[in-house]
Amino acid sequence: MKGATHATADGWVETRWWWVRHAPVPDGGRIYGQRDLDCDCSDDRVFRAVAGVLPRDAVWVTSDLKRAKQTAAAIHAASGGKHAPTEMPAHKAFNEQHLGDWQGYDRLQFRRDRGHTPKTLWLTTGDERAPGDGGESYPDLVARVIPLIGELNAKFAGRQIVTVTHGGTIRAAIGLALGGPHEISHAFTIDNVSVTVLEHVHPRHRPEAGVWRIATVNHRPWLTPGQAASAAVLA
């Protein structure tokens, strides 16, 4: 039945989130954050592979930035009609972290100037807010992403939800699933157009008792097993 709620054999309701990061952005090596840049959706092989692993009859949402919308449209086009949602709302709360005055700055020069080491794993330390109008810290990002996850989780309980967003947004969701300090999610690599699957399960009549589990992170279905292994070593 279209839009049916999925319950496991033991009566638990399972809501499965399919998080897809947007396609690569030709950024000229510059920090883009919430700059509304186009992305490169020219690799049909990648989008066909991603379309092939995403579920039919899913709820689709995106961030409000056009690179997320363009990526979702490319997946739809590559699916041969498999994915044809009647609507696909865009949510500003799922936008990437706003990096304020750092947006447009040469990424390598930025790291040199700040003297960051690989231990940082991100442009900023955990609670540092980017300077300038609209600048956010990572906790600011988390504070707007998590409530929307909760809202959609309740609205579409038991459904499949495909969410096309950004690396920071997906890491915030992983942090929620881990249940620990959200900065720990920076340890996860989230490649462009990769698929991360998180599942929320709860007793049918007790949604407040739900728990999260992580099914897969950074899945790149266009790679052969050998390519995936080599990429993991190089990363």
User: Helix count?
Assistant: 6
CATH architecture: 3-Layer(aba) Sandwich
Oligomer: single chain
CATH class type = Alpha Beta
Helix content: 25-40%
Query: What percentage of amino acids are in beta strands?
Result: 15-25%
**Radius of gyration over all CA atoms, rounded:** 18 Å
Concise summary:
With 235 residues, the protein is an alpha/beta fold. The chain is built from 6 helices and 6 strands. The chain has a single domain (14-234), classed as Phosphoglycerate mutase-like (Rossmann fold, 3-Layer(aba) Sandwich).
Structural commentary:
By secondary structure, the chain is α/β, with parallel strands linked by helices. The chain has a single domain, classed as Rossmann fold (3-Layer(aba) Sandwich). Helices cover 30% and strands 17% of the residues. It contains six helices and six strands; from the N terminus they run E-H-E-H-E-H-H-E-H-E-E-H. The chain has helices at 44-53, 66-78, 107-114, 138-155, 167-178, 225-234; strands spanning 12-21, 59-63, 90-91, 160-165, 195-203, 211-219. The chain has a six-stranded mixed sheet. Helix 2 (66-78) links the parallel strand 2 (59-63) and strand 3. Helix 1 crosses helix 2 (66-78) and helix 4 crosses helix 5. The longest helix is centred in the middle third of the chain and has 18 residues, at 138-155. The protein is globular and about 55 Å long. The model has no long low-confidence stretch (mean pLDDT 89).
